[in-house]
Amino acid sequence: MSETIPPPPSATTGAHMDAEGYAAAYARSLDDPDGFWREEARRLDWVTPPATIANWSFDPVDIRWFEDGVLNLCHNCVDRHLPARADQTAILWEGDEPGVVRRISYAELHVAVVAMALKLKTLGVVKGDRVTLYLPMIPEAAIAMLACARIGVVHSVVFGGFSPEALHGRIEDCGSRVVITADGGMRGGRLVPLKANVDAALERGCGVTSVIVVRHLGNDVPMAEGRDHWADEMAVSGDCPCEPMGAEDPLFILYTSGSTGKPKGVLHTTGGYGVWTASTFHHVFDYREGEIFWCTADVGWVTGHSYVVYGPLANGATSLMFEGVPNHPNVERFWEMVERHEVNIFYTAPTAIRALMREGDDPVTKHDRSSLRLLGSVGEPINPEAWKWYWRTVGDERCAVIDTWWQTETGGVMITTLPGAHGMKPGSAGRPFFGVEPLLVDGDGKLLEGATSGNLCIARSWPGQMRTVYGDHERFVQTYFSTYKGLYFTGDGCRRDEDDYYWITGRVDDVLNVSGHRMGTAEVESALVAHPLVAEAAVVGYPHDIKGTGIYAYVTLNAGEENSEALETELRQQVRKEIGPIASPDIIHVTPALPKTRSGKIMRRILRKIAENDFGSLGDTSTLADPSLVDSLIEGRRNR
Ligand code: WT7
């Protein structure tokens, strides 16, 4: 039996929902989805409320929610709050340097968003166009996203840690003609040369005609005449009304790694994503009027989209946005900020929790954390040890801890305990959110009942579900709906216990979750083989204390080439250049050959086991073309 910790009084007192409330609402969300989501949709203002609610099929794949409704998400996140909360802080920003703070009220946010939207219009951008955002964690990132939403432009945010090469691929794939960037960003005291990266990306050629450059650091950057515009020098005036959008009109594209090939452009639409983020923010965080909400994710990831920008602002909350990193200038940074800004809800990733746990309790306990009410975790499985430290040391056993499982594809939280309703089990995400019907299936797609383990699928659509892979609907169908016909396959393995709690065990495909960031092994491999001395590469994950999963790269060299430390450095450089620092391998293992079957297929299972230092259960190696290779691989692993 797994340990269950009852929700603390801070979670149950004043909660929107208790256990019975959840059970009733969950049952209704499955029995009467149209009625349930028609009501939840009222969290948003609609120009035309939807008459049709759910209209979807997983075979053939065609997903629509609220399809005849008309709305604008910028209106919902900004304009509609003006009568009641013009002076309330919408975005509370702290820079990389401690105590450098900006407070942007809803009224100021409105002015800034209108101005940015007008600047985009000046450049000839119209409804349906795609605009790429490559920005640091500054308010202008949220402002630019909302400006796009305001005029019906589809934003594609690219994380500032991606290389020019990766940025170029993403700009080209969605055909952006305009890029919004900044003169630079600061992370942990180090400058991120965003504008220079944009210049390098555009040199590779693509259809970009205009770049808007936000002045953030005030440093000199080269400006291309006629192409680049300082945001603060673009004179605009007047109003810019919100464009009425069909519920199924695209809102954004966000690229994410899959098990094969290049990153996929995950497409989310206006109505369903809007309802999902507004509803999950309200229920999952049991959000209460006036609270300060801090999600530490970068807006370059879906967590930042849904829970730094759209979810909190749709609910009229104050969203804290942080430019920096947890260990700059020291490891007290998070808790110092919790104290300074009297944060009520704190939402971060297990990798950060594990890294800070290593530093002991002192950096935490010396700061006043009495404002905290709720602690959240997202991005990867949280090990019980880290969970307990979060619960005891950070939350003083006073704040509920929620572990929220979801994906870029799901738009928002799918599985979690509700703070006021459910007991908590350290290491388990918990129970399905409203409308979510999880199923476990075995490798052949056979449905598994009761307490068991299997592959996690979702049986029916939910409003926040991605609608397609931008420009490649067939890839959408293939990736998510072809493994198990009629079901959405998540790519995750999962255990369900005797209390119907779900325990995510990690990816079962060739996707790695490194520090909560998704990385396709195929992408890292193709970056490695692009090096002139590399013949072949096979990349697998292995357990890593801080990152959760580390990147282990097996590499073979061209005939006659020798391994050296310099070469390993070059290979890491190569991956940083093609993808970005987050994809840099932790271990490079140069080997004379890769284990292959007689038909030439790389046996990844063996490579995974060896990387995991698990030599006892390699399974059947007799089908290998050269079984003796295994000993040399083990020997190589032992030396690392
Ligand atoms: C993958 C999705 C959710 C937004 C951030 C990541 C893993 C995510 C959890 C969790 C166990 C988790 C899964 C999932 N994952 N949250 N609470 N417990 N695993 O979004 O980059 O699309 O990655 O992250 O493996 O499939 P993403």
TrEMBL record:
Q: Where is the AMP-dependent synthetase/ligase domain?
A: 83-461
Show the Gene3D superfamilies listed in the entry: 3.30.300.30, N-terminal domain of ligase-like (3.40.50.12780)
Binding of Mg(2+): at which residues? 529, 531, 534
Q: Which residues are annotated as modified residue N6-acetyllysine in the UniProt record?
A: 601
List UniProt keywords, sorted A-Z.
Acetylation, ATP-binding, Ligase, Magnesium, Metal-binding, Nucleotide-binding
Q: Which cofactor does it need?
A: Mg(2+)
Task: List ligand-binding residues for CoA.
Answer: 187-190, 303, 327, 515, 576
- GO MF annotation: an example: AMP binding
Catalytic activity field: acetate + ATP + CoA = acetyl-CoA + AMP + diphosphate
The Gene Ontology biological process annotation of the record reads:
acetyl-CoA biosynthetic process from acetate
AMP-binding enzyme C-terminal domain ranges (all copies): 523-601
Q: Which GO terms describe its cellular component?
A: cytosol
Q: Member of which family?
A: Belongs to the ATP-dependent AMP-binding enzyme family.
Identify the PANTHER family for this entry: ACETYL-COENZYME A SYNTHETASE, ACETYL-COENZYME A SYNTHETASE 1
The UniProt function text for this chain reads: Catalyzes the conversion of acetate into acetyl-CoA (AcCoA), an essential intermediate at the junction of anabolic and catabolic pathways. AcsA undergoes a two-step reaction. In the first half reaction, AcsA combines acetate with ATP to form acetyl-adenylate (AcAMP) intermediate. In the second half reaction, it can then transfer the acetyl group from AcAMP to the sulfhydryl group of CoA, forming the product AcCoA.
Q: Which HAMAP family match?
A: Ac_CoA_synth
For this entry, the protein name equals Acetyl-coenzyme A synthetase
Q: Tell me what gene encodes this.
A: acsA
